[in-house]
Amino acid sequence: MAKVPLMVTLDGEWGLAMRIPDAPRFPKNIALGAIQDVKLLEEYGHEVARECKLTGIQVDFAPDLDVNSNPKNPVIGYRSFGEDPKRVAALGAAFCKGMEAEGVMAVGKHFPGHGDTSVDSHKALPTVDHSKQTLEEVDFLPFEEAAKAGMSGIMVGHLKVPALDKSGTPSSLSKIITTDILQNQLGFKGLIFTDALAMKGAVNANENNCVSAFRAGADIMLSSAAPVKDIQAMVDAIKSGKISQQEVDRRCRKLLIYKYKLGLVTPEVIKKEGLAGKLNSPETKALLMRLAKASITVLRNNGDVLPLSDLDKRTVAVINLGASAANEFASTCGKYTEVNKVGVTTAADVAKAVAAAKKAEVVIVGVFKNDAVTRDAFAQLRKSSACFVPVFFVNPFKMSAFGTLDTLPVLVAAYDDTNEIYSAAAQAIFGGIDVNGRFPVNIAGVGRLGDGVDLKKKD
To answer: Which of 64, 116, 195, 219 is catalytic?
Structure first.
């Protein structure tokens, strides 16, 4: 109906599947942060953009460019590429380069950096206590590098950053941060989005927060709490002279330029016939597998236990904690040797798992959940006298809940719970693939940033 086609946006940090069922599910950023081949991230960007265009989406609110240096961060965590600002910058820039090359806008978030917080900005206003130097050397770096690679959108978060704005104004509503620093100091000329203005971190007691965000320098105010009321507040601000008509016209012109760049010239009808097949193409599935294989990280391999050998002489049990016995991980292990598969989903299953471990010479333990049953089962199984091979398919920040893991002779981090990662982790254990992932964060008792052991594929 619109004479000028609408800009359709997606909050899709791990692809369309974050919001659309049955679309390809890519690994979360924490898994991608373990990948050493940056070109893979560029391919990933190309693919996400291809899928966006197939579904009529022009803008993706990705990647998350926060440098997650706080293990207690309740809202970023696995959404970040990790703790090393240079790695976050390189991976994020590669993804943006791929996206933008296909004509889809990448929007990095959450400027000036949400990585070192212990408060969720959906619920309250977090404070970032970094010095200006740290902000410039750590938090700003990924945004600057991604912008150089072609990223044309940035989302400003709801953060109190005293080193930048002493008033305590949320960054999304701060002219100092949004205009003086992001646009003038850093020279960013692309579209500026706010994070959702209905979030608790975006409260302004003295003024409508949409009016505040516009005056701060945002081009697009996302997810206002009360759209009818907020539109009227903007109209009233223009009538009163608080916002000039000339500034409204300038921002509208800027938005129209980007719509033109994104191909929004004439309305387009998306063809739904055969869409699922086009999204889940053989090439897409191959890329998912390559990303999975490149992310697997062997944190420790004392005594060169991996890849497993002499399988014809050893009994093997695969025990899935928090998953059924018949998932892709156990099934792939079963392609290399005969295995006794056990699933642990209730407290009653723990004894069965312990009994299976006692009968095996090699105990492979897949950890798929962080709950009381899983933690109890893991604590008992790690006492096994057999060759113990634990593989964690959970957010690495949750791994410390399983006790001190850096004393284990063998430890594998797989980070996420896709079928491709399940398969890749099993292949890594048995020597079916090369392994060169590196741990993207520091977690006490688990691993240090950059930890990882290379494994060569068996001939």
So the answer is: 195
